[in-house]
Known about the structure:
2 copies of one chain form a homodimer.
Chain A: E1 4-5, E2 7-10, H1 26-39, E3 43-47, H2 53-58, E4 68-74, H3 86-93, E5 98-104, H4 107-114, H5 118-134, E6 138-144, H6 146-152, H7 154-167, E7 171-175, H8 183-193, E8 202-205, H9 213-222, E9 227-230, H10 244-253, H11 255-258, E10 261-262, H12 267-271, H13 273-283, E11 301-302, H14 308-313, H15 315-318, E12 331-332, H16 337-350, H17 360-374, H18 382-393, E13 401-413, E14 419-431, E15 434-441, H19 446-456, H20 462-465, E16 469-478, E17 485-493, E18 499-506, H21 509-527
Parallel strand pairs in A: 1-10, 2-3, 2-9, 3-4, 4-5, 5-6, 6-7, 7-8, 8-9, 11-12
Antiparallel strand pairs in A: 13-14, 14-15, 16-17, 17-18
Helix pairs in contact in A: 1-13, 5-7, 6-7, 8-9, 17-18, 19-21
Amino acid sequence: MSRERLYLFDTTLRDGQQTPGIDFSAEDKAMIARMLDDLGIDYVEGGYPGANPADTSFFREKRTKRAAFTAFGMTKRAGRSVENDPGVQMLLQAEADAICFVAKAWDYHVRVALGCTDEENLDGVRQTIEAAVAHGRIAMLDCEHFFDGYKANRDYALAVARTALEAGARWVVLCDTNGGTLPHEIDAIVRDVASVVPGERLGIHAHNDTGQAIANSLAAVRAGARQIQGTLNGIGERCGNADLVTLIPTLMLKPLYRDAFEIGVTEEGLRGLTHLSRAFDEMLNRAPNRQQPYVGSSAFATKAGIHASALLKEPETYEHVPPEAVGNRRRVLVSDQAGKSNLVAELERFGIDFDRRDPRLDGLLSEIKQREAQGYAYEGADASLELLARRRLGSVPTFFRVEAFRVNIERRYDAHGELKTFSEAVVKVNVGGDIRMSVAEGSNGPVNALDLALRKDMGELNAYIDDLELVDFKVRILNGGTEAITRVLIESRDGQGNRWLTVGVSPNIIDASFEAMLDAVNYKLLKAGAADGLAVAAE
Amino acid sequence: MSRERLYLFDTTLRDGQQTPGIDFSAEDKAMIARMLDDLGIDYVEGGYPGANPADTSFFREKRTKRAAFTAFGMTKRAGRSVENDPGVQMLLQAEADAICFVAKAWDYHVRVALGCTDEENLDGVRQTIEAAVAHGRIAMLDCEHFFDGYKANRDYALAVARTALEAGARWVVLCDTNGGTLPHEIDAIVRDVASVVPGERLGIHAHNDTGQAIANSLAAVRAGARQIQGTLNGIGERCGNADLVTLIPTLMLKPLYRDAFEIGVTEEGLRGLTHLSRAFDEMLNRAPNRQQPYVGSSAFATKAGIHASALLKEPETYEHVPPEAVGNRRRVLVSDQAGKSNLVAELERFGIDFDRRDPRLDGLLSEIKQREAQGYAYEGADASLELLARRRLGSVPTFFRVEAFRVNIERRYDAHGELKTFSEAVVKVNVGGDIRMSVAEGSNGPVNALDLALRKDMGELNAYIDDLELVDFKVRILNGGTEAITRVLIESRDGQGNRWLTVGVSPNIIDASFEAMLDAVNYKLLKAGAADGLAVAAE
């Protein structure tokens, strides 16, 4: 039975960037684009070149391999030609495979917001799309406020859609810009539009203002649309966009969609979805939503209640999909099985040799659970997890041991009567039996001072870690207030461009940072193959 | 035009109690029941008397005035009479107006989970409902796994529903127990069931496992159902139940529902919804979901982007409902693209008097942009923005001045040969001319030590800040690597439950934390009306 192709368009880096409190660094954006590309998203929207320097420079190079790297921007202004519209020119020059233009589809906004005539707006759409096509770009049009516009003036809304189509747009995307449209309205309107724009060129862009972004997206697909726009974990302006992390499993696992449609995500990609979703939240430095459909840590959790025992008897009749299909796991008090098979998969991923019957496996599992209860989050810190596992199962050399450290931060008026803050760290480290004491001042504060002092003199080990660089660190306070626990995630990089994440947990932010720092150094030494000979007697 | 009555059933205290990590105290339950009663919910389910002592004692008295106080439990077991079934007897003795019984509607589960015959299960339903009615209770039946059961054996699922109806059940509730049913399936199945059970006696109980609990509930209503079961903020087992806080505004504000249906919530109650939702999260001691539809702090927030300026011109066309209707408010976030109009909107929100032609306004705007270029993020830190604005435009007293501080973090082996880390801070503060020096040790590290030392002795100011509490702080490293800048966001809370966010930026994490801390304290002093008299001469 042949299935129709359904296309996924991700706007995490554009609409998602509009989320209050979210601000991607250039490194974040590059990493997110890679994640989406690997996942199998068809269109990855990278931002709005020309709107700000960051987005402009992000489009100096193509950021995806398989996905169409897509730029976002406005159609040309009225009263000027495409050639003389700097905004449009900026978009045409961007290193993008596709350009998603946005245009008003509500005649009222054309007058109020643009102050031009309905016809000028249509001309803008036509000429801009044609220019993009002429430049060899895949062109698409986001019809802003399409559904409100349709209700106010059906003919004009349809005229905007038709104009884009006739100008050569690959996709005409119907945007529920203020998120207020309800599923049955989406259904009726999309069916009507499909009589003008064939479904295989229709897209839907839904927001969650009534908690129905998912339902609206699926209603549009049932009505004929074949492109869905959304974001990772549903981030986005106001209440967010349609959550691709929820849509993908629904499309791939629910028979009605699975049997009718094909998307670019593989079953392996689907199994990686839980990890991807949580890694993304770590990048945003926020706690994952435990109740998030499919991937939340509670999504398949059952409290010992009326369901738990029956669940253990007949899981498949109590779970609407198998948790493993999305890389999640069942959580019922007592049952460890899911946990163990998860761990086994991780160890294989690390390439660690082990015997499934090795009792140390259970020891490792319970230690991980114990540590996660303390606040460690290994989802986002593979390197720390690998070190922990190798220490338990194999043996990781004790390359060095820190005997003591001291950090001093002082703010005082300097000689010129200005308030200045000084950070100094002293570290006493034991390398191969020699005690080495180093002191350093941190231009970036205490963690920087500690990092410098620690690596200043590690004797023969320095050769292995000279190219190690701390590229990012994130701090989260768990159960705030007085019992606050601090979790620090450190991202490190070396000369070969390897990146790895380590985690530290402590009530003390300096301790937590130092623990993650030590893991980062030890991981590098391990991968660099620093020899046992350097080690002191294992503790 | 006469509207049909639609009934709301809240299960926060029963299904909501199944949420991993949520455990209500007796006081919590009583307060939640009152909140729901005042809101205008028709049925407030208080729990499962007989399942545990807490629920049993909760039903020793009626907890609602207007709402029907409802007990939850199972229908009688096979092989014994209602009189000899302790569970059912416990329910009949509970101080409840209504009893919601749960029964299997899937013949497969009748065999596997109950181990009785289909007919015995039907008998149990009939006799239990009849007994409840005979005891003068409003009786209703939750048909567990109804939709899966219907797909597996339509006739039996319908037989269970019909049996309850004929036995005198006021409501037959169709439960999507594992949450996997999709809206169009709900629509088709409920329409079919409505041919057996009249819609005015049909209810829907939806879960959010595909992110469509709201859509499923509304689909059922459109198909004929007239009772919706849900919870506050959508708490509940796994991914949660249908969120009544999202459903209520949709039913009251969206024309299609508003014109067709009437619910027990008044417009005044609706205006209190944002407060109720956040107060409930306070009770759960968790941060409210900023992206929650209608009531989230971001639900009507727009970053200065392509929409902001137009939004200010024509809010009603950019907002699907008026924020005030649910007690929420519009927020146009100042961010690096901020224009003067956004700033003006913010200042008005702060209640700051100013003259639009005041040149200091431009000074303030350029200072904000300059600071945001340095890494400050005011969109997430209202309190710091308000302080900055008031300092520029009006005058904020200099309540105190920190002359110097010193923080010492030391890790060393203690007397028992264990590696321990000690954090100590010394702060020299000038209050009203007196220099006060305080020292404190931080059980939670250096920031904690600084916080304690700073507030330890501020003289007469202490009276204003005794109830100040640091509830969360977030750290973000901007442009990582060696030029790293640290941004710290601190969330504070006081005794009246006010929460405010402040920001600090510095290459030094301790400096950044301290700056945000100072803003938090100054903001509290400002709001508490600490007098000028305490101030030293303004700098």
